[in-house]
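Budget justification note: compute hours in this period were largely spent on complex prediction jobs such as the one shown. Inputs:
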Amino acid sequence: MKLSKLAFQVTKTPPTNADTINHKLLVQAGYVRQLMAGVYTYTNLGLKVLRNIENIVREEMDALGGQEILMPALHPKANWLITDGWNKIDVLFKLQSRTGREYALGQSHEEIVTPLAKELIHSYKDLPLTLYQIQWKYRDELRAKSGILRCREFFMKDMYSFHENQADFEKFYGEVKAAYLRIFQRLGLTAKVTEASGGSFTQKISYEFMVLTEAGEDNIFYCDRCDYCINQEIATITEGDACPKCGAPLKLARAAEVGNVFDLGQKFSKDFDLTFANKNGEKKYPIMGCYGIGISRCMGVIVEKHHDEKGIIWPACVAPFAVSLIALNGAEPYANHVYETLQQAGIKVLFDDRFQSAGSKFAAADLIGLPIRLVISSRNGKQIEWKKRDQAESELIDLETVIKRLQ
Amino acid sequence: MKLSKLAFQVTKTPPTNADTINHKLLVQAGYVRQLMAGVYTYTNLGLKVLRNIENIVREEMDALGGQEILMPALHPKANWLITDGWNKIDVLFKLQSRTGREYALGQSHEEIVTPLAKELIHSYKDLPLTLYQIQWKYRDELRAKSGILRCREFFMKDMYSFHENQADFEKFYGEVKAAYLRIFQRLGLTAKVTEASGGSFTQKISYEFMVLTEAGEDNIFYCDRCDYCINQEIATITEGDACPKCGAPLKLARAAEVGNVFDLGQKFSKDFDLTFANKNGEKKYPIMGCYGIGISRCMGVIVEKHHDEKGIIWPACVAPFAVSLIALNGAEPYANHVYETLQQAGIKVLFDDRFQSAGSKFAAADLIGLPIRLVISSRNGKQIEWKKRDQAESELIDLETVIKRLQ
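Corresponding output:
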């Protein structure tokens, strides 16, 4: 794509209300625009990043045996009354039709997926069952903040599993945990599996996948020597206390939750009378699990973790394009040839074809943050300057080598 | 994919409240489930169809020079007050946060895209500008009906264009019209370009793209000899009257709107004070156009137009898989080999591996409606029975030929 054709361009001016790096850089580099607190438009560039993250998550959920479906965002009040979420969940957006029908906007989908599963689950032979979706969610947050980290409208993968017994749930939870850690690793994030509260409906603990960042809204205690990690909300310890697993002193840090796992027990199966016949023909309630990943939040956390003073540094798998291509004065004809050749080779290129100074083009490339920068200059003839976004050194290589490296 | 793995299976029992063929067949074949009137869950199969339609629409919008973005569904009340839509649009869903902040749910996005364009448009050099999105929309319909044709939550492509003058808008409208007719043709739909009312904000006419079907909710007069077509709502004629273009007698028929084009004039540019400097440096308001395609509605209309008494007959480009593969008793080992070979060749196969009678497998294949059915039977050795869903005759061909035809 030619940079001049992008509707939303880079800007030197940071947004006045940005409280976090992701908000500042994502707006300046042209990935998002804020409509109001906690509600954002994704530009063409931003949508590409979102789709890349979405596809990584989808791949791993499919590999787990999850089946993708798409449930609505508009829910009947009746379903939320059955679980008492209508009264108990303070972030639930409620609305009314002009004829007085009442709805909730989906902030999670247990209330929809459980009755849906009644059609699918009759016998132990129908278990386990795993359904997931990738979809926009709505939460009436008191304070939306931190750019796209804490939003009122956000993009999420939510998966729901149904099991014959606790052991089967635990086994599947282990697989999900491994898949989650793989996802976050692919996204360039180191997530800590953190014990946390199970929410308003259960005494059980849940697990949160936490990435250390000052932009986060949680405080966690973690151990440097082992993998022990606990949310301050449920912890009865202070910084420096001995790790209950290995004895090393615990550290306290700010973190952002990028994923979570809830052991829902039989709460929702009982509420919706979802039963199955076990091997002895007895009626039982399945054990349910719920597994979330905040896709738009991950995009924000990636920026918090991968940037420098010049801009974003996207991991290659989520970058909207593979390379920034820059032509210095006089080198446009060869740069055009390089652009066409790369595109024909199936390589995603963002070609800065604007009438701008070299300095301004370099600044734009750094701000946008694609993994590789290619510079074409008459001085270097057919040789192309190759530089990684996260390294200072550059090298001169020929077009064939550029293609070989990028394919 | 193996049919036994699909969470939502085919069923002989039609839904009790189905008023249209699309509702009946889409539920029976396992593509959708109704959550409440006008609100549906899309199963894995249904989601595949929706994505196929979405991708065709995206291709054609990109080819027009449209730039895809994604605007939120949650809108601030202020934007809707500026245009008076807050008071005038009866299908607008409104809601309130727990702190009393008021929002609308997007039923169209002029109120969001116009202020967004203020950042992008300053001079005539910034025009024309074309932005589009593909997204779920919300409408407080008094009567949601006809399966996925008239929904309260529906999937839509909406595009917005900004022009220097009326002539430029008309030129672009011509291009969009051609792209729309191409899209509907690709989807297997014959759309008639129909004159209609421009809505509550303008005296101008709009154009609706109408497909003749009894499941539709509009009545249109159309001419068989030329392309004249007008919505009964704005027509002052009756059936049999002479076509104003060619004199042939007009026909009256029921139709479903699958797309539309609105000449918005300067209504929204003026409301949001969106201006540009023309060649003489004078401040002017751009002319805006709005172009919709109902993606989920198209899915329903395709079923209305492409089915027989046995089930759906998907056009190949929207079908969730390319072929149904059926093994008759004893032929499973070779069928498995065929399944693996086709998948390795990149062909999307739905393999009916269930322990069911041949008749029940044939019925499922007909109901699901993939374009090609392959039957493996010990009787035929390595020869494979190839049958098109919309034809009665079958033929025996070898695996190599199957692959050649499907690639």
